[in-house]
Design goal:
alpha+beta; five-stranded antiparallel β-sheet; 4 helices; 43% helix
Length: 159
């Protein structure tokens, strides 16, 4: 199971709205300045994702919850999103090349296949999103923010 912590935005009648932060880059290796992934992540928006998750337990705004999703569903969705446009691109390019024998026709077939594969992935993913095993679930719940108290002994001793 893939796990990620999220912050509760709201809870209403058994459904929690949670916010997950987008991981921009790992920042763990020595080649941070020359990392292509880091540069690409700077181009896109640095936003949070809001997800609706079923929760029978009442939650309060600001509370931390640990979400989990099965590896199979995550790998399946990644395979669908990345491979269907790529397979469509190659199949249609090969078909147009064999039918017309021109580079421009091959290019047009590749574009049509890529867009068609993307649309197919979009349609299939909306159907798969309805399945329960493809939905994130709450694994554990942290304390509400108003229940956490940090005591500093140095302040009590007058230091």
């Amino acid at each position: 199971m893939i796990k990620e912590w999220a912050t509760v935005v709201s809870w209403n009648k058994g459904e929690a709205l949670v916010e997950c932060d987008v991981k921009a880059s790992c920042s763990s290796c020595a080649s941070r300045s020359g990392c292509g992934t880091r540069v690409l992540n700077k181009l896109g928006p640095q936003l949070t994702h809001t997800i609706a998750v079923p929760s029978e337990q009442p939650l309060v705004k600001g509370q931390k919850v640990e979400l989990g999703i099965g590896e199979g569903s995550l790998l399946g969705s990644a395979l669908l999103v990345y491979m269907s446009p790529l397979v469509g691109l190659f199949l249609m390019a090969a078909l147009f090349q064999s039918l017309f024998g021109r580079d421009l026709a091959t290019l047009c077939g590749a574009v049509l296949g890529g867009v068609g594969g993307f649309l197919l992935a979009r349609h299939v993913s909306s159907k798969l999103a309805m399945r329960n095993d493809w939905q994130p679930v709450i694994i554990s719940v942290g304390l509400p923010p108003n229940m956490v108290r940090i005591e500093d002994p140095s302040v009590e001793n007058g230091q």
